[in-house]
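Translate structure to sequence.
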């Protein structure tokens, strides 16, 4: 959960970059909550440049993200954290991507679902590939824990965040310790 809703501002986006046990994490938030999470895999200055390049008028604001920062630091230290209450911007609820992201968000830490299981959960049993594409468009990993969606064979499948499939495996191993 974010510390406060910023409605008194002139900047549409706020961001933070902070260190964790795994490296630097970046986050951007707008009026509807966090809209971008960048997982470890970048240096601090690279994250700042990336965020400011994509969100030209974003203002850095560490206090806005205090709770999220603390939760991420705890998570990457191997302590259980439930990110499901964090306000974040998701695709429209009635869109395919919105259904996928909301279903994915309901997967508890330490558990996984196959692409097929998630497709059946949203009522589209033959849409596993399209579902994988929707997860590839996820802009808020950890908040929409797409790393918890794997192949029916038990293989990890793809992961579009920094570090790719190796990072997905690391996240799954971390959550098994919770």
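Result:
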């Amino acid at each position: 959960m974010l510390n406060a809703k910023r409605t008194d501002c002139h900047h549409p986006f706020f961001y933070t970059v902070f260190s964790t046990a795994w490296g630097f994490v970046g986050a951007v938030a707008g009026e509807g909550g966090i809209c971008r999470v960048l997982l470890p895999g970048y240096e601090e200055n690279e994250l700042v440049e990336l965020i400011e390049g994509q969100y030209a008028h974003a203002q850095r604001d560490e206090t806005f993200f205090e709770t999220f920062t603390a939760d991420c630091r705890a998570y990457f230290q191997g302590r259980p954290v439930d990110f499901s209450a964090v306000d974040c911007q998701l695709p429209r609820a009635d869109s395919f991507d919105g259904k996928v992201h909301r279903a994915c968000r309901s997967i508890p830490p330490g558990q996984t679902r196959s692409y097929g299981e998630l497709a059946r959960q949203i009522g589209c049993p033959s849409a596993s590939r399209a579902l994988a594409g929707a997860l590839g468009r996820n802009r808020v990993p950890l908040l929409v824990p797409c790393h918890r969606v794997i192949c029916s064979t038990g293989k990890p499948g793809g992961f579009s965040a920094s570090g790719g499939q190796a990072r997905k495996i690391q996240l799954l191993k971390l959550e098994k310790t919770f």
